[in-house]
Specification:
Helix content: 40-55%
Number of strands: 5
Radius of gyration: 19 Å
Number of helices: 8
CATH class: Alpha Beta
Distance between the termini: 44 Å
Largest sheet: 5 strands, antiparallel
Structural class: alpha+beta
Number of domains: 1
Strand order of the largest sheet: 1-2-3-5-4
CATH topology: BirA Bifunctional Protein, domain 2
Shape: globular
Strand content: 5-15%
Order of helices and strands: HHEEEHHEHEHHH
């Protein structure tokens, strides 16, 4: 099994310095530091957690080749032309690729580090199917949310729509109304950066992944029938 002992003491200072030096020459001079202090440990983290997920029958996988997000920003459609991300992140899914949904995600940065589990960026038909399942099985959804909240994981309500989506105006329950206005369904575990340099970071990812399996199964039941449908 891959071992993860934590990010080194230079990882967060490097990411902070990168925020001040959004310069290709500076990055080229310091790329070896990025590889050893940020990218390498992030790959170790993903593969160590993937091994533990497999041992605990959590249906999520990842590798340093398929799960890590690039340090290079896509600036084609952004007003911010800074070329580099100042955080390190990775996504673990059933397929082990970043193209799948239903995940555990890790985000490491000086400003905020966190782990998330759930569904993000669903397309229109998937989002509609997820909302339909919430309405049909509101008691199940309520139980899943309450169970994860009791364990310390909050459903992220920060990107909720101001109005109810079309077709759900007759839903009366306040909690269901709140969930239907969500564009994403993710539970967040905020991480103190002191943990980033320790093996506890992997423990937190494994715990969130294990405890969120029932919610992931719920979401997969909604979106999986759409995976193999031909595009209209």
């Amino acid at each position: 099994m891959t071992a993860f002992s934590g990010f080194g003491d230079k990882a967060l200072p490097f990411l902070k310095a990168l925020g001040f030096h959004q310069d290709r020459d500076w990055f080229a001079e310091n790329k070896a530091l990025y590889e050893t202090e940020v990218k390498g440990p992030l790959g170790d983290l993903v593969e160590a957690v993937s091994d533990r997920f497999e041992a605990e029958d959590v249906p999520l996988r990842g590798s340093r080749k398929t799960s890590l997000y690039r340090v290079y920003r896509d600036v084609r459609f952004s007003k911010n032309k800074d070329p580099y991300n100042t955080h390190a992140s990775a996504l673990m899914t059933r397929s082990g690729t970043k193209k799948d949904n239903g995940f555990v995600y890790v985000h490491i940065a000086n400003e905020r580090s966190f782990i998330a589990s759930g569904f993000y960026g669903l397309d229109g038909p998937q989002l509609r199917a997820f909302r339909d399942l919430i309405v049909r099985e509101s008691a199940t959804m309520r139980g899943l949310v309450r169970d994860l909240e009791k364990k310390g994981f909050a459903l992220d309500m920060s990107e909720a729509l101001k109005r109810m989506p079309r077709g759900f105006d007759d839903v009366a329950d306040d909690d269901v109304n709140g969930w239907l206005r969500l564009k994403h369904f993710t539970f967040i575990d905020e991480i103190d950066n002191e943990i980033v340099t320790t093996p506890k970071l992997a423990d937190r990812m494994v715990r969130l992944g294990r405890l969120s399996v029932p919610f992931l199964d719920f979401g997969w039941r909604a979106i999986d029938p759409l995976r193999d449908e031909p595009a209209s």
